[in-house]
Design goal:
By secondary structure, the protein is of the alpha+beta class. It has 17 helices and 26 strands. The strands form five sheets. It has a nine-stranded mixed β-sheet, with helices on one face. Helix 15 packs antiparallel against helix 16. The longest helix is centred in the middle third of the chain and has 24 residues. Molecular chaperone. Has ATPase activity.
C-alpha cells in the first residue's frame, strides 16, 4: 500500500454537505464525472501539442459501463491520467481545482477549453455512491498506475494498481436507493441532457450515445440553413419552424457563443418563462436563463454558452455579477441589429415575422432604453392605406455582421417577385406622418379592434383618412409611450370623435321649420332625447359626409379619448374590466335615409296632436333600436340586454308590418 490517511478538508462535515446541500439534483454527478473525463482528454492533447508527450494518442473516447450484479457504474477515459502525487494533490485536497493550474501552464495549446472550474465536481459522486474508486495511469513515461478508494468518510486508501492503459476510471458502488442509475435508458437520457454536445465520443455498451458536434461553436460560414433548422428541430421537436435566428460568436469583452431563434408564437406559450438553454463549455447547465436574457426576449429559444457567466459551485444558479448584465445588453443589441438588418434588406420578411415579433419587441422598447433607441424607427403598424412601395425579395443567406463573428440567418422563404407587397400593408409611424402631413399634420387615427370598430374605420377610409391598427394587448400602454416620444402628435382612436373631414360643414343651409322655429337637426336631437330618456347621454346631430348616405350608419357612439383612457386606467389599477361609461356621445347621422324618414314620421305625429299614437310608439321604438345598433359596435350586451334588444327588434318589425299592411 502506497498510503493510508485522511482527506485534507476543513471540516469533517464535508460529505453530508455535498450529499444534501451542495448539489440540488443527484443526477448531475454524471455530468461532473463525464466533464472531468473530457478535461483529461483535452489535457492530453495540450501536453502533446506542447511537445511533452510523444506517445500514441489513440482515438479519444469515454466509456460508461454498468454492472448490475456488482451494482457499479464506471466512467472511463483514455486521457492524461494521474500519478500518485497528483491523486494526493487533486483528489485528497478537496476544492483544489487542477484545471486552473493546468490552464496556466499550457495556455494557448488547445482549441478546446477545460471545463472544470470546481474541484468539488468529483465529490458529487458521493451523492449516489457508498464507495468511490479511482483507477488511473498517467501519460508520463514509467508512471505507476494507482488505485484510490473512499467510502464517503474522510478516510481513504491509495495503492498501486495493475492497470496498463493510460487514462482514468471512476467506479461507483451505488447506494441502494440510487440503483436507477444502473439502467441504460436512464444513463442515455442523462448523457443526452447534459453531455450531448461534448466533443468526445461517449459510449455505452459499445454504442456512441452523444452527438458531439455543438453547432453554436462552429463558424457561421460553415453552417447551412438546414444545419440551423435541424438543430432547432432537435432542441424543440414537434414545433413550427422558427422565423429567423441570430448566431452569437464573440470573445470580447467576454466569451459567449450561441444561437438564438425567434419562434412562432403560440397562445399556450408562457412568455414569462425562458426556453433558452444555458451551457458552459458545451456542458448543459440549466434551462434557466432569466438572469441573463432581458425579460422582453424570454420568448426566444436556443442556446447560450459562456465561461464568463458566473455560476455557483453546483452550476445550478447564476451568481450576481456585472458581467451578467453586460451579456444581457450585448444579446439585446445583437437582436436589435438583426431586426434592423432584416427591415433594411428584406422588409417583406420582416413584416411577415412582425405578427410574432411585434409584441415582445414593443415590450422591449417600453422597458429597455438602449433597445428602444436602437429599433424605434423600425416599429411597424398595419394600416388601411395600400402601399405601393417595392419590397426587395432576396434569398436569405448567412451574413457576418461584424468582425467579432456574430451572424444571423433568415428562415421564412422570400417572395419571388420584386414588386411583391405584403398581404396586409404595414408602415412605420414616421412614414405615416410624412404621408399625411398635408391633410392631417401631426394627427394619427388608430383602431384597437378591427371588428367592433369596423364602422368607424370605414368612415375614415371613405374620406381618405388613413387608420393604423394598434390592436395587440400591449398597445394600450404603447400608445402612451408614442405620445411621450411624439409630443406634438395627437393620437385619436377612430371612435373617440370624428374629424371635420367626415362631416358636412355647411349647416347654414338647414331649413328652419316656421311652426317650431327649429331646424331638422334640432328636432331630431329632441326626438332622441325624449325617446331614450338618458340624462347622461350626450346626443349630437351631424350629417356624415358620403356619396352613399345609405352606406353610412344611422348613428354611432363616440367615447371621448381622455375620458375613455381614464376609465381604462382606473380599471387596470383596480384589476377590473372597464365598464362601459354612462357618459358617452350618440352621434345621429342626419344624412341617413332612416333618420330622415324618422323625422318625417315624427312630423306627422305633431300634426295629429297630443296623445301617444301607434306611430308615436313606432318612432320611440326606432329611436331605441338605432341606439341599440350603435351600442353594439362598442360593447356586447349582457344576457338581459340582449333579451331586451331582441324583444324591441321584434316589436319594431311587428309595428312596421302592421303599418305596411294598412
Amino acid at each position: 500500500m502506497l498510503e493510508q490517511g485522511t482527506i485534507s478538508i476543513h471540516t469533517e462535515n464535508i460529505f453530508p454537505i455535498i450529499k444534501k446541500s451542495l448539489y440540488s439534483d443527484h443526477q448531475i454527478f454524471l455530468r461532473e464525472l463525464v466533464s472531468n473525463a473530457v478535461d483529461a482528454i483535452q489535457k492530453l492533447k495540450m501536453v502533446s501539442r506542447a511537445g511533452d508527450y510523444a506517445g500514441d494518442m489513440g482515438g479519444p473516447e469515454i466509456e460508461i459501463a454498468i454492472d448490475k450484479d456488482k451494482k457499479t457504474l464506471s466512467i472511463s477515459d483514455n486521457g492524461i491520467g494521474m500519478t500518485a502525487d497528483e491523486v494526493k494533490k487533486y483528489i485528497n485536497q478537496v476544492a483544489f481545482s487542477s484545471a486552473e493550474e493546468f490552464i496556466h501552464k499550457y495556455e494557448g495549446k488547445s482549441d478546446q477549453p477545460i471545463i472544470g472550474h470546481f474541484g468539488l465536481g468529483f465529490y458529487s459522486s458521493f451523492m449516489v455512491a457508498q464507495k468511490v474508486e479511482i483507477d488511473t495511469l498517467s501519460y508520463q513515461e514509467g508512471a505507476q498506475a494507482v488505485h484510490w478508494s473512499c467510502d464517503g468518510s474522510p478516510a481513504f486508501t491509495l495503492e498501486e494498481s495493475s492497470r496498463t492503459t493510460r487514462g482514468t476510471s471512476i467506479i461507483l458502488s451505488l447506494q441502494g436507493e440510487e440503483e436507477e442509475f444502473l439502467e441504460s435508458a436512464r444513463i442515455k437520457n442523462l448523457v443526452k441532457t447534459y453531455c450531448d454536445f461534448l466533443p468526445v465520443p461517449i459510449k455505452l455498451d459499445g454504442e456512441v450515445i452523444n452527438k458531439q458536434k455543438a453547432p453554436w461553436r462552429e463558424s457561421p460560414s460553415n453552417l447551412t440553413q438546414e444545419d440551423y433548422l435541424e438543430f432547432y428541430r432537435y432542441l424543440y421537436p414537434f414545433q413550427e419552424e422558427p422565423l429567423l435566428w441570430v448566431h452569437l460568436n464573440t470573445d470580447y469583452p467576454f466569451i459567449i457563443n450561441g444561437i438564438l431563434y425567434f419562434p412562432k408564437m403560440r397562445p399556450d406559450v408562457d412568455v414569462t418563462k425562458g426556453q433558452i438553454k444555458l451551457f458552459c463549455n458545451q456542458v448543459f447547465v440549466s434551462d434557466n436563463c432569466e438572469e441573463i436574457i432581458p425579460q422582453f426576449l424570454m420568448p426566444m429559444r436556443g442556446v447560450i454558452d459562456s465561461t464568463d457567466i458566473p455560476l455557483n459551485v453546483s452550476r445550478s444558479a447564476l451568481q450576481g455579477d456585472r458581467t451578467v448584465k453586460r451579456i444581457g445588453d450585448y444579446i439585446a443589441k445583437k437582436v436589435g441589429d438583426r431586426l434592423k438588418e432584416l427591415f433594411r434588406d428584406n422588409r417583406e420578411q420582416y413584416i411577415s415575422a412582425w405578427k410574432d415579433l411585434g409584441t415582445f419587441v414593443k415590450f422591449g422598447v417600453l422597458n429597455d432604453e438602449k433597445f428602444k433607441k436602437q429599433i424605434e424607427d423600425i416599429i411597424v403598424f398595419r394600416t388601411t392605406t395600400k402601399l405601393t412601395e417595392k419590397v426587395a425579395a432576396e434569398t436569405p443567406v448567412v451574413e457576418v455582421q461584424s468582425s467579432d463573428g456574430d451572424a444571423w440567418q433568415d428562415v421564412t422563404p422570400s417572395p419571388t417577385s420584386e414588386n411583391s407587397t405584403p398581404s396586409a400593408p404595414y408602415t412605420t409611424l414616421k412614414e405615416y406622418l410624412e404621408r399625411n402631413k398635408e391633410r392631417n399634420e401631426n394627427r394619427v387615427f388608430y383602431s384597437t379592434d378591427e371588428a367592433t370598430q369596423a364602422t368607424y374605420i370605414e368612415l375614415h377610409k371613405n374620406q381618405g383618412l388613413e387608420v393604423l391598427f394598434m390592436d395587440s394587448f400591449i398597445d394600450t400602454h404603447f400608445i402612451n409611450f408614442l405620445e411621450r416620444e411624439y409630443q406634438d402628435v395627437k393620437f385619436t382612436r377612430v371612435d373617440s370623435d370624428l374629424d371635420n373631414t367626415l362631416l358636412e360643414q355647411d349647416k347654414d343651409k338647414e331649413i328652419v321649420d316656421p311652426k317650431t322655429n327649429k331646424t331638422r337637426s334640432e328636432t331630431i336631437k329632441e326626438l332622441f332625447e325624449k325617446s331614450l330618456n338618458k340624462p347622461r347621454l350626450n346626443i349630437r346631430t351631424e350629417a356624415l359626409k358620403s356619396d352613399d348616405p345609405q352606406g353610412t350608419p344611422p348613428a354611432i357612439v363616440l367615447l371621448p379619448e381622455i375620458l375613455r383612457r381614464m376609465r381604462e386606467m382606473n380599471a387596470m389599477m383596480q384589476q377590473q374590466s372597464a365598464e362601459f361609461p354612462e357618459d358617452h356621445i350618440l352621434l345621429v347621422n342626419t344624412a341617413h335615409p332612416l333618420i330622415q324618414n324618422l323625422a318625417n314620421l315624427n312630423q306627422g305625429i305633431i300634426i295629429q296632436g297630443d296623445g301617444e299614437s301607434p306611430t308615436d310608439q313606432l318612432v320611440n321604438l326606432i329611436c331605441q333600436h338605432v341606439y341599440d345598433l350603435a351600442l353594439m359596435s362598442q360593447k356586447g350586451f349582457d344576457a338581459e340586454g340582449m333579451k331586451s334588444f331582441v324583444e324591441r327588434s321584434n316589436e319594431v318589425l311587428t309595428k312596421l308590418t302592421e303599418q305596411a299592411s294598412k
